[in-house]
Amino acid sequence: MSADLLELLDLVARAMESFVPGLCVTRHVGDRVWLEHELDNIEGTAASKAEGEWVTALGFSVSYRFLDEGWFENACVGSERERVLSAVVQLMSRVQDILSETTTEPWPLVVVNNRRDMALADAAIEGDELHMWYGERSTPALKLPSVHLA
């Protein structure tokens, strides 16, 4: 696990905290886990257990208004950037769940066809920038600060 990756996860945590007063996010690097590759198999037989790879789980611990909301890990295959992106979207979704459950209101709020709803979390990596937002990318309900990856 590179020091740059740990610093990147810290920057993501600070970006989330900057938009949610009372939120505290700490990066969490888990154990290495074996992930079997999903293979399409027309015959319906089980894929070989030899197909897979070791990856390090990434995650975050979250507290809101001094209440521990637990931690999560995300393990997926792909490049370091793809693994970070997957963990980031899961963090954004987890924060959304915590805020919506605590306030009993959709967060962040979006109105669709006169109906109050939550804007869904999404993120993308373009070049050396990680962009994070809730809602439609072209008209986000909430846009978090971008994080420089390099």
Can you offer a commentary on this structure?
The protein is an alpha+beta fold. It has 2 helices and 8 strands; from the N terminus they run αβββαβββββ. The protein has a 3-stranded antiparallel sheet with strand order 1-2-3, with helices on one face. A 3-stranded antiparallel sheet has the order 6-7-8, covered by helices on one side. It has a two-stranded antiparallel sheet with strand order 4-5. Strand 4 and strand 5 form a beta hairpin. Helix 1 runs parallel beside helix 2. The radius of gyration is 17 Å and the shape is globular.
List keywords for this structure.
globular; 27% helix
Shape summary = globular
Overall pLDDT level: 88
Which class of secondary structure composition applies to the elements? alpha+beta
Number of strands: 8
Query: Whole-Å distance between the termini?
Result: 15 Å
Number of distinct helices: 2
The value of Rg in angstroms is 17 Å
What low-confidence regions span 5 or more consecutive residues with pLDDT below 50?
none
Share in helix: 25-40%
How would you write the strand order of the largest sheet?
Answer: 1-2-3
H-E order: HEEEHEEEEE
Please state the oligomeric state of the protein chains shown. Answer: single chain
Let me know the largest β-sheet.
3 strands, antiparallel
Beta-strand residue fraction: 35-45%
